[in-house]
Amino acid sequence: MKRLVWSYGIGIVAIVAVLSFFFMMKGQTEKAVVSGDVPKAHAQGERVKQPISQFRAVQPDKTGNEVKNVKNNMPEKADPPPFLVYIDPGHQAQANLEKEPIGPGSAETKIKVSGGTSGVVTKKPEYKLTLEASMILKQLLEEKGITVKLTRSSHDVNISNRERAELANNSKADLHVRIHADGADGSENTSVKGFSVLTPAEDNSYTKSIYQSSLQASQAILTEVEKDQFVEVDGIRYRSDLSGFNWSTVPVTLVELGYMTNSEEDRNLSDQAYLIKLMNHVADGIVAYEGMTK
């Protein structure tokens, strides 16, 4: 009998202890809820959904590294690459009379690089004038935020017209600008003058993919030059016989600064102020074309 009473007493003590512990924990939880330390739903035994903005760690990525803060660390949209103009100062100190195909897969060939013309008064060779003009154009374009590359920056090079086009192609240039000067054949044609722009012909099978964009660039340049009443303009000419066009896979245009066989234009093209003014117009045309591509 005593053993039964003893066991009964121990049982009552145990029950009292468990109930005391339960009510003590409940009180602490309710206190935490009131103070804001524990979500109320969690205190009541419900599942709490963590807000996405508070998400800090998720499953590893494919490399096994943790991906943190998924919402805030989303990859930003990359900025577009800068507009790239590849300028080709025509010709070089020594002509290369070897032949190369006029276009990809063509059996027709053409001289790799001709000697160019020269000033009737100044005697300046075309290859010197074209580099002078190209360096001015490069600086003007860079001041306008355009990235510029040159096919050559000196006279002692040996780069064919095909290779010049391929340099622009390989760089994925947005525009390939070829700088040249004209020369009329025969002394009776010394009166011929005028700034002009050459562009790929519409029926040229080699340049079908770049015909329209090249024409846009050519027209944009010509439009800006035409604004200057002191520059005589000879318009646009369409060509399908130029290796530098036919090997191009990027938009291409060729600027003829004027006729070095005309005494007036020869003198003008060797005048620094005139040349800078002319290249400013060309630069404005290129910037206008850039705007068309956006």
Got a strand count? Answer: 10
Strand order of the largest sheet: 6-3-7-10-8-9
> What overall form do the CA principal axes indicate?
globular
Specify the structural class.
Answer: alpha/beta
Q: How much β-strand is present in the residues? A: 15-25%
Which parts are unreliable, with pLDDT below 50 for 5 consecutive residues or more? 1-7, 29-63, 66-71
Helical fraction equals 25-40%
- Tally the helices: 8
Rg from Cα = 38 Å
Largest sheet: 6 strands, mixed
Mean pLDDT rating = 84
Which H/E pattern describes the elements?
HHEEEEEHEHEEHEHEHH
Alpha carbon gap, first and last residue: 101 Å
Can you tell me about this structure?
By secondary structure, the chain is of the alpha/beta class. 39% of the residues lie in helices and 19% in strands. It contains eight helices and ten strands. It has a six-stranded mixed beta sheet, with helices on both faces. A two-stranded antiparallel sheet has the order 1-2. The chain has a two-stranded antiparallel ribbon with strand order 4-5. The chain is globular and about 70 Å long. The termini are far apart. The model is unreliable at 1-7, 29-63 and 66-71 (pLDDT under 50).
